Amino acid sequence: MSDCGIVFMTAAKREEAETIAKSLVEKRLAACVQIVSDIRSLYWWDGKVCDDPEVLFTAKTTEALFPELSAEVKRLHSYDVPEIVFVPIKDGSPEYMSWIADVTRKC
Predict the structure, then answer these.
(1) Could you give the CA distance from residue 3 to residue 89 in angstroms, rounded to a whole number?
(2) Segment 89-99 mean pLDDT
(3) Rounded distance between C-alpha atoms, residue 18 and residue 14, angstroms
(4) In order of start, what are the domains of the chain with their CATH numbers?
């Protein structure tokens, strides 16, 4: 079993996702961040249903780094309550899992 996982996040604009992604990778809080454009989110906020375009981005990291990664996302994010969800990777290729762990180690 690995402590690696994928963090799902959204942003209102691609530029915001890119800023957050760059910071996470540069600070070695994520081994990789993938940005997926043009999603549509329907959700409850302030007592009403909202329907907005968003950008989905995902980060590969470790469970140990999730608190620090989450804090960095919150620091840079424009939302009051940003989506930051850690999903453990139950299994994956040993080489890929080792890469995530190696790349995210603090130097």
Answers:
(1) 7
(2) 94
(3) 6
(4) 4-103 (3.30.70.120)
Cα distances (Å, whole numbers) of residue 32 to 4, 45, 47, 101: 12, 30, 36, 11
- Rounded CA separation 73/65 (Å): 12
For 70-87, write each residue's pLDDT tens digit.
999 999 999 999 999 999
Question: Which residue bears the tokens 């992604």?
Answer: 21
What are residue 19's phi and psi, to 5 degrees?
-60, -45
Q: What is the SS3 assignment for the chain?
A: CCCEEEEEEEECCHHHHHHHHHHHHHCCCCCEEEEEEEEEEEEEECCEEEEEEEEEEEEEEEHHHHHHHHHHHHHHCCCCCCCEEEEECCCCCHHHHHHHHHHCCCC
Give the count of beta carbons closer than 10 Å to the beta carbon of residue 32.
17
Amino acid at 92: G
